[in-house]
Amino acid sequence: CERERSKGISSSSRDDNSTLLNPVNILSLFCPCRQGRNKTCGLCFSDGKSHIDYILVYRKSSSQSEKREMFERNIRAEGLQTEKEASVKNSDLIYLKLHAPWDVLCCYAELMNIHMPFRRKIFYMHRRHRFMSRMEKCINKFHGRLPRKPMRFDKDTLPDLAENESFTAPFSRSRIHHFIIHKKDTFFNNATRSRIVHHILQRVKYEEGKNKLGLNRLLSNNSYDAAFPLHEGRYRSKNSIRAHGAENHRHLLYECWAWWGVWYKYQPLDLIRRYFGEKIGLYFTWLGWYTGMLFPAALVGLLVFLYGLFTLDHCQVSKEICQATDIIMCPICNQNYLRLSDSCIYAKVTHLFDNGATVFFAVFMAVWATVFLEFWKRRRAVLAYDWDLIDWEEEEEIRPQFDAKYSEEKVNPISGKPYQAFTNKYSRLIVSASGISFMLLVVIAAVFGIVIYRVITISTFTAFGWGLIRNNSQVATTGAAVCINFCIIMLLNVVSFLLSPCATTEQPRTESEWENSFTLKMFLFQFVNLNSSTFYIAFFLGRFTGRPGACLRLINRWKLEEVSHYFSFLWGDGCLIDLCMQMGIIMVLKQTWNNFVALGYPLIQNWWTQRKMWKEHGQRAKASVPQWERDFNLQPMNAYGLFDEYLEMILQFGFTTIFVAAFPLAPLLALFNNIIKIRLDAYKFVTQWRRPLPSQAKDIGIWYGILEGIGVLSVITNSFVIAVTSDFIPRLVYAYKYGPCAGQGQAGEGCMMGYINASLSVFRVSDFEKRSQPRTTGVELFGEAVKYCRYRDYREPPDSSEPYSYTLQFWHVLAARLAFIIVFEHLVFSIKTLIAYLIPDLPKDLRERMRREKFLIQEIMYEAELERLQKERNEKTKKKEDGAYHKEWP
């Protein structure tokens, strides 16, 4: 490597005195590297030959010039070539262009163990590929009927990705003749070149000292304003891509992936991986896989909803509620009397969600989550093989922050590396856990504040003089509370990101440890923040209100919030309409807001920057701005990488599975959102963000474990929703034990006759406590004073020996609910475990293919080495013969 570095220094001697070009010259040098159709303005040095692999941006007025100059000298000492140019629109900005020569690329490709193609694959195709080819043939039969070719790509528009069709091996300069090198300039693609240059920049010193190295520290102390690899030219072209082909890979990605007109087509994953790297490629692969798996879940959820819609007129419970004009309902706490038939519409609406298919759908979604995760393992394994990531291991490098803090305190006597003392580590861990606990308490306090708001607001609305507001007080209160809750959720999300640097005060040792710690803590906070109000509505709302004559109050003044009588016969305690409203509003609002922020913010920022440039320099500057300046004007990628993108989808996955028994349309809403999000994220990456540094990854990291945890939690919550919040168990107990079909083993709609009357208890009006007496006696509504009213509970009548005590039916229902929770959880967990056992993580044909490839690689390497030795022997023999011939010639 030292010899190669010295060669790099000699080859880049012209850059020791880096040229600073005048902005006026840039206007005249519109396209200095126009050497082919794919060469675009601003991708090469001024000589038109050296490709720009990386860009560093700094300001002349920066006070860190000494560090920067030493850093740049060391860059050139490593063999990189440099060239400086001033900004077109801001003379204070300087762009430092970096180029890695062939020798430097070969040297560091070997050090970084980068896999490169060395021989074409000649054995059988993968079974998946054979299946896809058969499917394409079937589609081609109907090609005349499908002119737009839905759900597929034209292979003619995609480049020939040789690395996916070749054997690969770690690059070695001693065996360079084994690799497929058609042209040195294109052997290492742009993503690999940028990764190599970034690797060098992270290890170059900017000051004398053990820890004074790395580009990240220069970015943090404002020595450089930005550092990024270049996009491969413009993403739009005046010429048609079908007639003239793609100008570059960015243009191809836009036309085949990021353009909104191709929302219904498959993603070009290999091209995404080649342009953005494996980590971003895996994210879009996972997002596409998740979206595809949502299709069956959304279809089944829609069928459950339609089943409730088509059986609406046949529901015996709804019929009895609509016909119960003579049943007068008790006001629980200081409200007016109502007829039970007034809740007819709400009973029918609730049947859309509470029907016989609810339990089946809950079991289906639990199984679906397991199948989704297990088949993702297989998909990831196939992708890791195709992308040569099977044997790749992430480098466990010490974080610069950890090294800077503990390198001088204590060093491991064996490894010689700094380490954190036990007391220091756990004291910091306690501080970090305390911070997260405090934030969770803030979330709980916010939920409690919403509860108090609902209690006060509903008390105000029920006393309102206007009948429209008084009669719909529950709906108005719930809708307003959900909107306020959404605003609080978004506000706490912003606060959490502002405080995110304090989330990992325990100072993890490596980057992967830091990322896992940060991800887990931030997800925990975001999950509790988003779902705490939903858990309250599902399991606590309306359960501590007491009964008529014994109303529970808050601070001895306001009654605790109960469910309105309109909902009192829907889903057990009547909270499911509130739960559906909560989930529907928050899911729609949050997804809409996230999509707007994800695309709207960078779009507005970039538009404003371009507008200022056009205003200052005119349209001529718009056409002559080089690629590096156009990229600098784009928005940088999030500092936390793909954290926001994964977090949004994981939270959506939780919403889709945890309370799916209460809201079967959640998978359908998630599907519609994800179809939009794939193209929105693609458009953002291709057009609105600077090109992120391509990085490698073989899986989605800690997010997979979080998905498994959500899958387990969804089984528990859905069992409680069906057993506790739903009216499924009380109806089942009545049908088999107390109804007209009791003892016959039947549970049809005919067996539910009389269910409403059996689930109502009788209350004597004279037993109302003084401050909870109704406002009216009922003469205004019913023509006579009300003496007895009904309420939802299983209690003895007032004339019995133990008035208002629980009946035997109440204990039967309670025992059935507990039994259902136990049986449901054990059954579903058994099914999940069986499915996970039956589905292997690695497909059988892929395992055979990997073994076959290892055997062929060894054979090819042996033959290639044997051929090289034979060639050398022949050359030596020829030289000897030539030498003997020349001796005999005189």
TrEMBL record:
Q: Does the keyword Cell division apply?
A: no
Gene Ontology MF terms: intracellularly calcium-gated chloride channel activity; protein dimerization activity
For this protein, the parts annotated as crossing the membrane are: 283-310, 357-376, 426-445, 451-469, 481-500, 520-542, 563-589, 650-672, 700-724, 814-839
Indicate where this protein resides in the cell: Cell membrane; Membrane
Q: How does it sit in the membrane?
A: Multi-pass membrane protein
Which segments carry the region annotation Disordered?
Answer: 871-890
The Anoctamin dimerisation domain is annotated at 44-269
Alphabetically sorted, this entry's keywords are: Cell membrane, Glycoprotein, Membrane, Transmembrane, Transmembrane helix
Q: Which Pfam families match?
A: Anoct_dimer, Anoctamin
Q: Name one GO cellular component term.
A: plasma membrane
Give the family from UniProt.
Answer: Belongs to the anoctamin family.
| Name assigned to this protein | Anoctamin
Instruction: State the organism of origin.
Output: Mola mola
